[in-house]
Every structure is written in C-alpha cells, then in structure tokens.
Specification:
The complex is a heterodimer of chains A (322) and B (304). With 322 residues, chain A is mainly alpha-helical. Chain A is built from 15 helices and two strands. Chain B has one domain. The chains are: A mainly alpha (322), B mainly alpha (304).
Chain lengths: 322, 304
Amino acid sequence: MIAALRTPRGLATALILLVLAALPLLTQAFDQRYLLSIGTRIVIWSIAAVSLNMILGYGGLVSFGHAMFFGIGGYAIGILSAEGISSGWIQWPVALLAATAWAVVIGALSLRTRGLYFIMITLAFAQLVYYVGSGLEAYGGDDGLNISRSRFPGLIDLRDKASFYWLCFALLCASLWFCGRYANSRFGLVIRGAKSNELRMTALGFPVFRYRLAAFTIAGALGGLSGILLANEGAYVSPAMMSWMKSGDLIVIVVLGGMGTLFGPLYGTIAFFVLEEALPPILNLAHKGWGEYWMIVFGPLLVLIALYARGGIDSLLGRRHD
Amino acid sequence: MEYLLLQVLNGVQLGLLMFLLAAGLTLTLGIMDLVNLAHGSLYMMGAYIAWTLIGVTDSFVLGALLALPATFLLGVVVEAVVIRKLYARDHLTQVLATFGLILFFNELVRALWGPAGKSIAVPGFLNRTIEILPGVPYPAYRFAIILVGALVAILLAWLVARTRLGMLIRAGASNRRMIGALGVNIELLFSLVFGLGAVFAGLAGLMSAPIASVRIGMGDDILILALVIIVIGGIGSIKGAFIAAMVVGQIDIVGRAFLPDILKTFMSSSAASSAAPAISQVMVYVLMAVVLVWRPTGLFGQRT
C-alpha cells in the first residue's frame, strides 16, 4: 500500500481520491457550490465508465450503446416516482433488476455477433431504448420527466447535496474495488484472455460466450446504478441522457483514461469534464468569443487521441507492472 | 387505397434518400474496412453548402449542381487529412476519430452559419403537384427526389457492375491487399470512393433540405439509420443496402401513416400520435436485431 504511493500512478490516484473524498468540504470552504455539482456528475460518470471499461477495456467488446443503461436505470426511477412510489428501497432494486435483465437479453443477442456487427447491434439496442423513452408520452416523451429524489427515510436525505455526493463517491469506491477484484480474478482473466485470443480460450475449454455474457450483465447492472444516480442528481430523466452521443462520450472517456486499467475510467472522466469546462475560457483568452466554439478544438483533439494516444492518460503515468 | 399508394411512394422516396446515404457508407466499409461516423456530417455539409450556393446563384438547380463538386472536394480533403490514417487501425480507433470529426463539423457549422436552422425553398418549377394516376395528386418535388434517387441508384449499379472503377471497387471489397499487390493505385481508389460517397451523402442532404430543414446535427440521427441499413443489407453490398433502405423506408412511413389510427383504437389520440413515430423507429431496430440474430453478417454480407 505504502509502496504503491511511491510510483507516479499511485501518488496521482491517491491524490485524486483524496480530493474527491474531501470535495464537499473544499467547495464549501471556497464557496464554489457549482463545482460540487460538476464533481457529483464526474463521480457518477466515472461509475458508468468503470462499468464500460469492464467489457470494453478488459474484454475488448466495443459496446456502442452503454448510455442505454443510464436510461434504463434512470427511467425505472422516473416511472416509479411518477407512479407515486418514492421509497428508494423499492426504486433502486427494481431499477437494478431492470438494467440487469435488459443486459442479459441484449447481451445474449449481441454477443452472437463479432467486431463491427457487435458495435452496430449494441448501438441499435440503445437506439431502441432511446425511442421507447421518447415515445412514452405518459412519462414526458421527448421532453423528459421531472421526478422527486428517492427517499431513504432515517438513513440519508438525497436532497442534501453533500450527502448525495458522498453516497455517489462511496459507490464509486465500491465499483473500483469490485472492478479490481474482477480484473484479477479467474473470471476476469478469462475475459482478458478472450480479448487477446478468443479461439485459444475456446480451445482451452472455456465457454467464452457465457463468460462474456456474465461480464456484459455485470457491466449493465453497474451502468444501471449510474443511471439511478444520474436521475437522482438532476431529479430529472429524459431520452437525451441515453442518446448515442452519450454512448460515444463514454467510449471517449474510457479510451482517454486508458482502456483495461483500473483507474483509467476515473482519469478519463475527470479529463473529459475538465476539458469541457476549461477549453471555453482558454479559447476566450486567445480570442474573445472563440470559447463558444470549443468543440472545434475538442473534436480534432479526439482524432489525435484516437490516432496517437491509445494508451490514454494511464500510460503517461509510467509503465505498468501487472 | 390512394392514401396507401401515396404513403408507399413517400416510403420509396425516403428509402432512396437513405440509400444514397447508405451507399457511400457501405462502400467505405466494404472496401476500406472503415467505420465512418462522420458520413452524417458530409450529409449536413452538403445541405449547408447547397444553402449558401443557392443563395449566391439564386437558382436551386445551379446551386445544387455546384454543391456536388464542393462536397466531393470536401470528402477528398477529409480523406487525405484524417481518414487515410485510419484504414490500418481497428474499428474502435475509427469510431473515436470519426466521432471527433462529428463534433468538429457540428461546431464548425455553428460557427460559420450560426445556430439557427436554415430552410431551402422548393424550387418554383417543382412547387406544384402532378397527377401520378388520374385524380391522384402527388407533390412534384417528392416525385423529383424519387426520379433522381432512382437514377443515381441505377448509375451506381452500372458503375459498380460494368465499369473498370466498379471492378476495382468490387475487387477491393473482397480482397484489398490483393488488388494493391496487383499494382492498382489503392490510395487514389480509396480517395475516389470516399469522395464519391461524400457526393452521394451531400446529394441526399441537399435534396432532403426542402422537405425537412437544414440544421446542426441533422446528419447524426440519420447516420445511425444508414448504419442500420447497411448492417441489415450486409456490409459492402450495394444490393443489400438498396433492399434494406427500401424496407426501412416503408417501415418508417407506414408506421407514421397508419400506426396512429391503429393505436387510437385503444389509447388516447395524443398519446397515439406521439407513440407512433417512436414505434416505427423501434420496429426498424427490431428488424435489424432479428436479421443479425438470424444471419450475423446481414442479408447479403460475406460469410467469414
């Protein structure tokens, strides 16, 4: 543990986690409440990125529809809330169950295909969920749905921004811990082995399809959790939260941070949100008014990252030893 | 009966537009093994460039005709600057890089043309109805789209099946390294095919402009639909793309035209009219899922 702190990676990660853990206190001390809401979104998106990394990074399965789990988790909360069931003890298990069940179904169908077809079929399923969401006129249709936050009486009040943040942060830590266990377990090694050589893993006698389906399901459930949190963060759900551009953003985040690395999704999410917040003011410094068009810089930056920096931020922190 | 005929024609018109978009996409995917998400951006750029040129020349036909070489040029430039570096990379890199291109083009359009949408008026000589059958009027502009779309589809079929360029395209689709080894200038071929795809996308964009509107991100959703079409049809297959585009066009239009009435029998009319487009979209994706589960490489895709 102490030895890990001596490497740049360990030190950077420890610092990030420390700052994140203390964020509500820091934002209160400096009176920057706006930063806390960005921080909350960073933490929630990190959980989603961790879940995508489990299949995309470790498994090499390019799912281009991961934002659908934002939608499934979020809409389960939203619909229950609209129907007058506000207890988190009912909402959260139902939402997790919905995300898990959906992940099993589409995983079983999608994993039959390979490569490009897998990218496309996951995208198609995400679009399907998107259009179902926008067709639910009773629950807001395209405009989305204002909801009340889940209630956990006597335990935690999600309307309190700091409490909610710490809950999200605790869940992120749990996801990271879980992902670390996953990556180094026998199960995770099969998933990683199938990424580098599926045929060999099959020849070794591993039922690769079943392993992948299990991984896809776990990732879907965790993605659903991030959807639950996202719905509670804004007290609002809409089809926009699961548009295919959001799935693209998630892939960008995972690659930006470093695919198949434990903390990569966290680095990637922070970098993504920091770029989003910092590029406009920087461009405005260069020339007033340019900041509005920050994506003109961000787009080509993505192209460069895709072409030349596939190791992501994690690879900047020195060589890995595992 | 007449209503059905009109809706089927609308479906054909939408299908042909989708085919124009899908043709370029399936060629780049089949021949260069390149996932180009930015294809929808070329569709958008085609419409915006046409809007400007129509304003300058004050003539729809002239502006549209000038916009085509302009989008070809744009396609060739994009290919030379970015796309060329992606051929040898995996699909994930291609998805990422072209996703970056989408963000770039959407923002570029906002910077150059402003955030508000533009509209292109239906050209005067087509701003009327024609009788396709005695007593059945149909908007002339939509009919013109069908004609142009069908013409381009035939041209493309001829190009691919009968010309030397088409022969190289087909050879490239089945084994791109082999035709390189046989001395074909692959760089030039890829550049040409990409430019051709850009022209088709731009043509689809500018023709759809008077019906829909010219706006930022107009290519993003339709791109996904085009990808669905080429996946249903089988990657690299022009024939597959055509058939899938026609089917998807019919599903979409029929869903919009007839579902509301069916739905109204058991739900409120406002709920029915908002659910119907969503259901017809959902049906398209269900179709794709069914096709892929049944034939994992699409209807006319090559077995691997």
